[in-house]
Structure formats: structure tokens, C-alpha cells
Amino acid sequence: MLTLVLLVASACTVVLARPSLNYLEEPYATESTQAGSEEVRSAAIKRLLAVFGMDDPPAAVTHRRKQPPQYMLDLYNTVADVDGVTKDPYLLEGNTVRSFFDKLRSEQVEFRFNLSTVARTEKILTAELHLFKLRPQATLMFNRHHFYQVSVYQLLDTTKTNTTQMRKLLSSRLIPVHSNGWEVFTITQAVRSWMVDEGNNLGLHVVVQTLGGSHMDLKLIRFASGRNHHQSKQPMLVLFTDDGQRRSTTLESADPDTQVTAILAQSPMAAPTSSRSARSLDHLAEEEGVSMPCRRLPLYVDFDEIGWSGWIVSPRGYNAYHCKGSCPFPLGQNMRPTNHATVQSIINALKLIKSIETPCCVPDKLFSINLLYFDDDENVVLKQYNDMVAGSCGCH
Ligand SMILES: *[C@@H]1O[C@H](CO)[C@@H](O)[C@H](O)[C@H]1NC(C)=O
Ligand SMILES: *[C@@H]1O[C@H](CO)[C@@H](O)[C@H](O)[C@H]1NC(C)=O
Question: What is the CATH T-level fold of the domain 96-242, as seen in this structure?
């Protein structure tokens, strides 16, 4: 059964196969799929990880004492629906958003973030420092200043630069004394320089001044620190990047995912709660010698059953759907045939040329999904993956 499905899948894959995707370079050998379902399972999971851009699953955060930053949860809920499917593909500029907590945990308003999990190939679009401003203490209520100036500096290594300059201004802004809540500063330049040379990363320094330029008492104007305040108010760096993997949603890119999901559908880890009835319908149809026409069926990918729920925050799984059924002559418009498929089905029906099969039932519209997960360093990452959900099926 499994082999059969694979053969069908690969027969259809040949038609649309596109080279150059790394995880496709060695195609599934049908012999190895017969060797044992454990091997198939581990090969499939490895392949699935590759689809998610990873070699190995991140070290699972077993004790989930860590709460993902509210900002990242809100961002996820803004870009994705409950199943992780992207609501609006133009909301995010890149396809990755990473959050980092301050590692310095200093008493001073100094911060350092470890960006070692950012891939060299990632294009840095924007970097933001998020600081939580605490309510002023009562003594300040009678202060004559209504605003103060907050400046964020990048600390420089004077032995490397030719100047005696110790720091570089990144961002500066007036903030009301009585405000309370998150303040965001753009620090993209600094992060770009840290990506060029990690040794440049000496951290950030925040200076608070009156409008006249004199220093203000930091006991009065306070930002939450990772050391003394609740986790939900920790200083945070938010990095918007693009890993260049955003592929256009075209027909050609449909088949790789189909291939992986074909295996998932047949292995025990798929949770075919809703597709079970569909499958038994198929079974009935097959017994009666009738093949169901090409259509979209559910295919739930359950991250818990795959063993990934330790590091994936959201979603718990998603419906990838799959396309199944025959594409016999004559192809109606509901089959969404390409002209090519129409001609192929005619050639097949007329048996003009031997060995020309009917067209394939494949996804013809694909949607992206979003994953919110913990990386190896326990940073929370939001990443968008294209072409993960079959939006509709057609004969191609
Ligand atoms: C950053 O984190 C990585 C992985 O956790 C670690 O190997 C590295 O030493 C850290 N770098 C600094 C400067 O702390
Ligand atoms: C530093 O400055 C000196 C003289 O001003 C110059 O000769 C040298 O090339 C500079 N080094 C770098 C790394 O810019």
C-alpha cells in the first residue's frame, strides 16, 4: 500500500519535478521504503525537518518553565490563524522574527544579546531593542521635568577602531516621565555590525538625560531589568530577518511537499481523525472499481505525534491537506486543468501514444504556515514556511 502510494506520487512528481532543492536531491528509493516502517519514519522526519530548514530538532525545552514573550505570541496571532496558516502574506517583510533576552542581566542599563543562533545567510532587515518602562516612583511626581531623553548606544571596542570613541549613538527619543510600558528603539546598524564580527558585540548602553542634557537619576527613571523584574518585562531584542528561503507560490514547488506528506499520510504518526472517513470512502470506491475524481482531502500533521511538541509553541499541528483522485477524460473546469493537462488527457483517452498516463491530481494553490518555536538557545522564533498547505487541487 505504502509503496503503491509512493509510486503514484513519484509518477506525478516527474511531471513537475524541479531540481536544486537540497532535500530533494536523493529521491526516495522504493526499496528502502520496503525495508521497515521505522526507517521510513526516521527518514521522513529527517526530510520534514529539512522542509522546516533544520538539520536536527532544537534541544527540546523539557521543563517548560520558560514562557514565550507576549510580544512574540501577539505577533504570531497577528500573522497566523489558529492552524498557523498565514492570514496576510504581506504583513511581515521577511520570513523570520527572532527574540533574544538580555544575557548581561546587569544592574546598569547595559544589555548584551547572544545572536549565535542567527544564520550567516540571514539578511538582517530590522532590529529593535524593547525596554519596559516602569511607573515613576512617587517622589518623582513633583519633578519639574515632563519629558526626558533616552539614548541607546552601541558599545565599541576602542582597540579595534581607530578612534577613541567608546560608543556610537543608535537611537534617541523623548519619552514622557509618567509613561509606563514598552519602548522600542531601532538598533539595526549595531546588529549588522555584530553579524559581520561577533567580537564586535560588546552590548548596548542606555543613557537617560533631561532636556538640558544633564544626567537623570536612574533610580527615578527606571526600565525593567532581567535581574530584578518579572520575566514578562525583560529587556528583549527583536530581530526581523529573511533567510532567503521564501519561494514563490508556484505550481512547480507543489510536489516536494506532496511527496513528504504522502509518506506522513501512510505512516502511523499521522492523525487521520477526519481523513479516516474519507479514506474508507476511497476504499469503498476502489472496491467497486470506481475511482474518485481529483479532490482535496484532509491531512493533519500532528507535531505532538511526530515528537516535536517540546520545542514548538504553536501551532500544535496543521492541516496540510492532500490531493487525491483521478483525472480522467473529459476534464471539467472543476478539475482546474491546465491546457497541457487537457491535451494530455485527450491523448490518453484516444490512446494515440502508448504510455501516456492521465494527468496528475496535485495541489495547484499553496499557502504558507507559521511556526512559533524555541531554538537551541531557548530563544523564541517565529518563522514562515511557504507552500505548506494545499489550498486547492487540480489536474496538471
Ligand atoms: C552564545 O551562545 C552560544 C550557544 O549557546 C555559546 O556557545 C556562545 O559561547 C555564546 N557566546 C557568548 C559571547 O556568550
Ligand atoms: C588608523 O589610522 C592611521 C593613521 O591615522 C592609519 O594609518 C591606519 O591605516 C588606520 N587604521 C585603520 C584600521 O583604519
Answer: Hemocyanin; Chain: A, domain 2 (2.60.310)
Name all residues whose Cβ lies below 6 A of ligand 1.
Answer: 114, 116, 377
State pTM to two decimals.
0.78
Q: Cα of 162 to ligand 2 centre, how many Å?
A: 6
What are the two backbone dihedrals, phi and then psi, of residue 343, each rounded to the nearest 5 degrees? -65, -45
**Residue 192 is placed in which grid cell?**
549588522
126-173 residue pLDDT tens: 999 999 999 877 665 556 678 889 999 999 988 876 777 889 999 999
Q: Are 366 and 89 within 8 A, CB to CB?
A: no
What is the CATH T-level fold of the domain 4-57+268-374+385-395, as seen in this structure? Cystine Knot Cytokines, subunit B (2.10.90)
Q: Which atom of ligand 1 is nearest to the CA of 115?
A: 1
Angle (deg, nearest 10), helices 254-266 and 2-16: 180
Give the alpha-carbon dihedral of 255, 259, 265, 266, to 10 degrees: 150
CATH 2.10.90.10 domain residues, the chain: 4-57+268-374+385-395
Q: Which pLDDT band holds residue 8 (cuts at 50, 70, 90)?
A: very low
Measured from the Cα of 376, ligand 1's closest atom is 5
Expressed in angstroms and rounded, the spacing between residue 375 Cα and the centre of ligand 1 is 13
Ligand 2 centroid to residue 112 C-alpha, Å: 28
Which-ligand-closest: CA of 163? Answer: 2
